[in-house]
Amino acid sequence: MIDKSVPNLSQAVAGIPDGATVMIGGFGRAGQPVELIDALIAQGARDLTIVNNNAGNGDTGLAALLANGRVRKIICSFPRQSDSWVFDGLYREGKIELELVPQGNLAERIRAAGAGVGAFFSPTAVGTELAEGKESRVIDGRTYLLEYPIKADFALISAYKADRWGNVIYRKTARNFGPIMATAAKTTIVQVDELVELGTLDPESVVTPGIFVDRVVVVGERRWLNNGEFVGGVDLEGRPLTASEGGDR
Amino acid sequence: MIDKSVPNLSQAVAGIPDGATVMIGGFGRAGQPVELIDALIAQGARDLTIVNNNAGNGDTGLAALLANGRVRKIICSFPRQSDSWVFDGLYREGKIELELVPQGNLAERIRAAGAGVGAFFSPTAVGTELAEGKESRVIDGRTYLLEYPIKADFALISAYKADRWGNVIYRKTARNFGPIMATAAKTTIVQVDELVELGTLDPESVVTPGIFVDRVVVVGERRWLNNGEFVGGVDLEGRPLTASEGGDR
Amino acid sequence: MTTVFTRDQIAARIAADIPEGSFVNLGIGAPTLVANYLPTDLEIILHTENGMLGMGASPAVDQVDPDLINAGKQAVSEQPGAAYFHHADSFAMMRGGHLDVCVLGAFQVAQNGDLANWSTGAPGSIPAIGGAMDLAIGAKSVYVMTDLLTKQGESKLVESCSYPLTGVGCVSRVYTDYAIFDVQAGTFAVTELFGDNTFDEIVALTGLALIDGTAGKGDAR
Amino acid sequence: MTTVFTRDQIAARIAADIPEGSFVNLGIGAPTLVANYLPTDLEIILHTENGMLGMGASPAVDQVDPDLINAGKQAVSEQPGAAYFHHADSFAMMRGGHLDVCVLGAFQVAQNGDLANWSTGAPGSIPAIGGAMDLAIGAKSVYVMTDLLTKQGESKLVESCSYPLTGVGCVSRVYTDYAIFDVQAGTFAVTELFGDNTFDEIVALTGLALIDGTAGKGDAR
Fold first, then answer.
1. Pairing between strand C141-145 and C101-104?
2. How far apart are CA A3 and CA A136, in angstroms?
3. What are the CA-CA distances from residue A102 to residues B121, B127, B171, C122 (Å)?
4. Contact in structure between D176 and D158 (CB atoms under 8 Å)
5. What is the set of active-site residues of C?
6. Of A119, A139, A204, which has the smallest distance from its Cβ to B121's Cβ?
7. A138 in helix, strand or coil?
8. Chain C interface includes A77 (CB < 8 A)
């Protein structure tokens, strides 16, 4: 019997070595696998190269990984945000390397890694300073830049539900980078709200098939859900609203 | 109000000119838009370039289009089948041009057209006679061939359900080339069993979003379905089984 | 007296130009305001690059769903007819030329349509590009929403951009607080003046050779 | 007496080598038989390139669903845990190196692992490649299932292929009706002889320099 579920977060992140390239899903906080990141901090791997759209928000999740000095380099499209103070400080002190990649190139390069594409000609960033050093070619009258795949040793992903074969579904815009990162890493680790019986997920609606998933760990429902029903009453960070905002607190 | 539905098949295929490149969905008979193809035959466009995985089965659908002498060239991966006699005859008589493309290159080249990729380095067909004349490059120690997008003027697709915005879902392995062809054609025409109310399709499960769809035409349920329930009792061509086979005939 | 539109007025003016059935991406920041002025009786489908078509308005505070956000990481809602997809599919829509319109902010727009909106190139600044370069080259029409002048009073419409480029020759039209400009063969054409603003005032503010493409001008000829 | 396995026997032998949890693509034709011999108590997940993982067995005749077929266009069924996807995603699985095993037929296999299985190059023949070239370069292990000899008695294992290639150096192992061969650094190693077949008989049938990699041989050293 195939069973990709692991009993706890520490087993989920076991074996990630120093120096690994780790893709971390999420766009801002949506789809960010905070529990897996916390487990990675506890696990202790250092000198990591992180691939994420952003460079951390606030002081939790990816920002905490950075604050703990575990990240040598980050490959992302949008590091600077109103709440990216952890990254901002490290970057200004020269303590972290940044590879800035336009978001569409980031997504397509990750997909290319999973799809066995050796390189591709991209229409984005032509004529900009991000084109420097890149091979360009005119195809059918339009200029393109050659872009290479981004592969990873591990991917950490947050999703909604999975079964023991590793079939995964996501929820709303928390899907974002999860499905493509799952294809581009040697080992893909998925945290889910809920593990469901094999055969429960509609085969027409599986987003990441189990072929791309190595480990599944259940972290329980987020605070804005109750038995899969959206119950609201949280802010964008998932914290319950205060009474004055219409919440319970 | 957006309403991409058209009232009949002749309006669905209106405006396809002589000489057009037309993608036709389907893998063998599964997902083949037979009703749209019949309408295209009636519409009369000639000198077509057809993109399909195969080159027609039996005497209906794509095979009938070929038999009617409407196709100048076919781009496909697997023309020769046990029931491809129409194509076989035309090919042997030199009456149709064939561009043979490995199936994975066919799929990825169609996707590339829809995704704005100018060209890509593919791992398939290296060292074979299908590599002749193609640019090759060694990337990270592996040899790849440069492949270009396949675009079309029109795509004809068979799907399961759509709404008036053109959001589409498919059924089982009849999905095959539909979703990628929808992205690669200037005008995408979809035949469906059923048009459903806007908001009925689960946003998590829409396979082809309406942005890729121009016209939707309802052709009614296939013979192996009844109110969306599979009722069986057909052969692989969709013909009701005889009584001796467990059917009604 | 010179008319200077507020951001909301510019947003409303842009919204009025978007036909029903359009697929539209509103960039982060000011362009997001355009959503508030789209006519509610017309169906215009909003794309957000973090994986959604059919994005709806901000929800009530107690309906905030952290799994449902826009590209600016703000809470949004889901319209009937919405669809979710992953990031590569989302950017394929953009880069493949399937979006009708995107609206972006700008530091500078050059008269050949070059756009600079991601970096002032200042030493020590932290770069962040996001999806702007993909939007700039991908949408069929790239509209810029911006003040005409910087806080220092310099024109953001320029002969050529001094700031790092986002895209080359990609801008179709610029909606400013003074007027609307179309990019026409290497020159800005003023197509609409707000209030009593005159063509000569705009020429003076921008310091550029401009084409008078206003309807009045056209009628007068 | 020489032992010659039937196709079903070869299929069963291949099935016995596939570990639980493998993702496997069975090529059209004879390799499809392998599915009949996979142990029912083990979970092995079949991929069909027309867009499915978790493919099940042929259905009863009155359960034939024309929307549910395999790559050979035969009716199949759906296992619990199945997933459907489009053709580009399906071939991305293959070409991206995610399939553990594929089983293909062959006209010829060369001792360096080259595979020829799509065209005899005969004048007037109609070419058809399908997904074979993608499978050949994509699966982690490429197993070939074939008779050792052609109907004319010639070895299908050869020094170098005379027929047009499907893939270069891609074959890991060849299951024939006489024996099993591994491709090892440019030479075939006989790793298992069926029945009483001897290494020398196989050398004689193939006319190739072979390595004796059978367990018995190993034990004897």
1. parallel
2. 46
3. 21, 35, 35, 19
4. no
5. 49
6. A119
7. strand
8. yes
Q: List alpha helices for chain A, DSSP H.
A: 9-12, 34-43, 62-67, 85-92, 103-115, 178-184
A34 close contact with C: CB closer than 8 A: no
- Distance between CA atoms of residues D198 and D212, nearest Å: 10
C116-145 burial, b at 16+ Cβ within 10 Å, e below that, comes to bbbbeeeeeebbbbbbbbbbbbbbebbbbb
Spell out the per-residue pLDDT of chain A, length 249, in tens. Answer: 999 999 999 999 999 999 999 999 999 899 999 999 999 999 999 999 999 999 999 999 999 999 999 999 999 999 988 889 999 999 999 999 999 999 999 999 999 999 999 999 999 999 999 999 999 999 999 999 999 999 999 999 999 999 999 999 999 999 999 999 999 999 999 999 999 999 999 999 999 999 999 999 999 999 999 988 999 889 988 888 887 777 766
Please tell me the distance from the alpha carbon of residue B154 to that of residue B20, in angstroms, as a whole number.
Answer: 8
What would the pLDDT profile of B142-187 be if each residue is shown by its tens digit? 999 999 999 999 999 999 999 999 999 999 999 999 999 999 999 9
Considering only CB atoms, which chain A residues are within 8 Å of D21?
2
CB B156 within 8 A of CB B24: yes
Distance of alpha carbon D1 from alpha carbon D215, whole angstroms: 21
Contact D91 B103 (CB under 8 A): yes
Structural contact between residues C115 and C156, judged by C-beta atoms closer than 8 angstroms: no
Coil, strand, or helix at residue B228? coil
User: Which neighbouring-strand residues pair with B230?
Assistant: B225
Tell me how far the alpha carbon of residue A13 is from its chain's centroid.
14
Distances (CA, A) of C196 to C5, C149, C207: 12, 18, 19
The helix/strand/coil state of C120 is coil
List the 154-173 stretch of B: residues with Cβ below 8 A of C: 163, 165, 167
**Helix pair angle (C87-95, B103-115), 10° resolution:** 70
Least Cα separation, residue C118 to chain B (angstroms): 22
Helical residues (DSSP H) of chain B, grouped into ranges: 9-12, 34-43, 62-67, 85-92, 103-115, 178-184
Please give the sequence-ordered ranges of beta strands (E in DSSP) within chain B, or none if there are none. 21-24, 48-51, 71-76, 97-100, 119-122, 136-139, 142-147, 152-162, 168-169, 185-195, 215-218, 225-226, 229-230
Chain C meets chain A (3+ C-beta pairs below 8 A): yes
**Residues 204..233 of B with a Cβ closer than 8 Å to D: which?**
207, 222, 224, 230, 232-233
Contact yes or no for C64 and A176 at CB 8 A: no
Task: State pLDDT tens for residues B197-246.
Answer: 999 999 999 999 999 999 999 999 999 999 889 998 899 888 888 877 77
Contact by Cβ (8 Å): B56, B30 = no
Residue A176 in contact with partner chain D when CB distance is under 8 A: no
How crowded is residue D152: how many other Cβ atoms within 10 Å of its Cβ?
5
* B139–C contact, CB cutoff 8 A: no
Residues B193, B169 contacting (CB under 8 angstroms) = no
Record: contact B116-C95, CB cut-off 8 A:
yes
